[in-house]
Amino acid sequence: MTRTDVRPEREGRHDPALYTAGMTAAAPVPLLVNRRSRRGEALGHEAAHALLHAGVTARLTFTDDPGSAERALREAVLAGAPRVVVGGGDGSLSLAAHALAGSGVTLGVLPLGTGNTFARSVGVPLDLPGACRVIAEGHVRRVDVGRLNGRAFLNSAALGTSAEIARTLTPELKRRLGLLAWPWVGLKVLLRHRALQVTVTHGGGQLTVRTHQVLVANGRYVAGPLRAAPDASITDGLLDVLILGDARVPSFLRAATGWAAGRRSVRLSAPELRVHAGGSRVWVSVDGDVSSVRDLRLTLERAALNVNVPAGYVPETV
């Protein structure tokens, strides 16, 4: 493929832009970029050019809200696209998983968010040229998809302080501070946070605790570079439940610090479980998207999503 013409053919501000290097036998790959992700607006066209440089002709569409993104993804599936490339943060990729799981369509990952947690779990480089090379090489691995009350997630569902932090963070703060936005807001949240009473029901029994933080992890990473556990994997068919400390703030801080340093904090692992938060509605963060719920039913779809991964990718070692 020659690369002499890298100018997009435009049909309007919100219409797709076709990045092509001339005649090609392959249909253009749909490239959906979340304009509201941390770097989406700035890097959308750069991402299309980087894909072109790697040998992939892409049709770029910016999405501005979850509804338009989901429609574009489902249209791609109905049109028979063999793969779709999504540029954005973990929320965008979680939405893509909801639309693509079980379809056989391969997801190409362009990490344009703040933490880029899923990209880390599947070994995708965090720089655009590296991520585009992975997509162009075409290696595919099937990974697990979690479901919380039917809604797909790739990384984790969280109750407690992290959900309150995610609810408090603004797009502007994340753009300005990146990963540092979390500890900046976290200290303020922790000073006012009340411990939750949580009952976790799973195949092996029931566990009731009072704590400031519960994480249910699907992937190897749950928040940027923070691992769920040293042996966690997005292909093991299990959800890992982490409970960080008890109702005392010092206990939470010790547990959170130890976990961040690599100490194992998983209390149980299961393919399906329920979480009951004392009968009241609580905030839950699902791959960064926050909502209010009373009861959580978490399930796992084993090997449900095809993803482009680097050659030689091994989930347990990334």
Automatic annotation (TrEMBL):
Q: Where is the DAGKc domain?
A: 24-152
What are the protein's GO molecular function terms? ATP binding; kinase activity
What are the GO BP annotations of this UniProt entry? phospholipid biosynthetic process
Coiled-coil segments? none
Matching entries from SUPFAM superfamilies are given as: NAD kinase/diacylglycerol kinase-like
Q: Check the record and name the Pfam families matching this protein.
A: DAGK_cat, YegS_C
Q: Which UniProt keywords apply?
A: ATP-binding, Kinase, Nucleotide-binding, Transferase
Q: What is this protein called?
A: DAGKc domain-containing protein
Name the source organism.
Deinococcus aquiradiocola
